[in-house]
Amino acid sequence: MCKNMGFSLPLTHILPVILINQVRRNHRDRWDCGGNRLGIGGYVFKCPRCGYETEPSPINFTCPRCGSLMEAVLAELPRDVRFRYRRRLGVWSYVQLLPRPRVRVTLNEGGTPLIKVGKGLYGKFEGLNPTGSFKDRGMAVGVSLAKSMGVHSVVVASTGNTAASASAYGARAGLRPIVLLPNGKVARGKLIQSIVHGASIMGVEGYFDDALTEALEMFKSGKAYSLNSINVWRLEGQKSIAYEIYEEVKVPDNVIVPVGNAGNIYAIWKGFWELMQAGLIDKLPRMIGVQAEGAAPLYETWRRGVDSLIEVNAPRTIASAIRIGKPVNWLKAIKSVKTTNGLIVTVSDGDIMRARDRLARRGVFVEPASASTYAAYLKLLREGVVDSGELTILVLTGHGLKDPDSVKG
Ligand code: F0G
Prior knowledge:
Elements: H1 17-30, H2 35-38, E1 43-46, E2 53-54, E3 71-74, E4 114-118, E5 121-125, H3 135-149, E6 153-157, H4 161-173, E7 176-182, H5 188-196, E8 200-204, H6 208-220, E9 225-226, H7 232-238, H8 240-249, E10 254-258, H9 263-277, E11 286-292, H10 297-304, H11 330-338, E12 343-347, H12 349-360, H13 368-382, E13 392-396
Parallel strand pairs: 5-13, 6-7, 6-9, 7-8, 10-11, 10-13, 11-12
Antiparallel strand pairs: 1-2, 1-3, 4-5
Helix pairs in contact: 3-4, 3-7, 4-5, 7-9, 8-9, 9-11, 12-13
Ligand F0G binds next to helix 4, helix 9 and helix 13.
């Protein structure tokens, strides 16, 4: 039975008390959240806003005091962190610094190459993961926890890649994946992936943010386990991007990451931060987040220095993966940028497509959201914010084949 059954109020809605009680019963009845099965005992939950600390939970990710999304912090880092990525194990190569659920699901994710794309410039090509995006790293961990809890269904809202990955890993683990997609706003290749992996697909009118509200309702009512990036355990898998970069080049000067729901930039920051806590590195890379001009809530929030999110109600960009107006991990993303002297930058759709084509002409085919990192690099190079004498990593989050319609025939 779940020890930590306190259930915090939903992010976007206040549910009647009766429903909340029902929710508590549902989770308790259906899922076994016992610490030993999940191997999350080495963590504490800390609130990035008010500092509240509590024991870790597999289902309850918000601060009971202020409602912010909690951080899962390793209470004690192993004294002797030694790892080397091995394809056979996927992200579980880094199990020293991960939860240790009873069941470990893997499709041998991770181990993606750093490809030289310019002077001092490398792309970490996450498009070479099993389903073609970085999401697989997080799903390996999130789905393992779900399976270990005895969950039958998992649910995500998605701009496409999370859905593809949850569908594949859900299928792999024998779980029922449910994916909620904003109607008409998901790239064809990604939609096809969810179909072939046998997910139940629901179209939602509106944007990703509306689909997320519905997916979280399903989670809160106990119908399915959420694998969106409110789930801190999924982000634990994604931090392995930092570990792999470290294994190849130690600490780069800059890491440029496309930002949508804002989980990945934080996850990568967390990976480096842990390496620093473990004494393996003595500085952090500058974290640089990129948003498209028409979908830039984090940029506006960071630029104005305010302490609540400036939402975008009708986000627009050709980079459909990051067409998000209300990123749930905004506070964690801002923390990653601020603590590394980093920044958030915006790029136009035109610049994104030109950057996509330039990378493709060097043999690296990425989807538009991923190409935004190269567009941002070129912009920051012109402005003198980054230098070609530095070591810069572009996190090329998804494969170009996912979005064939973005390529002019
Ligand atoms: N790049 C790609 C290719 C993505 O699919 C996403 C997010 C991001 C970057 C941004 O990462 O959300 O952690 O800031 N895609 C999500 C999805 C939203 O549903 O597939 P983030």
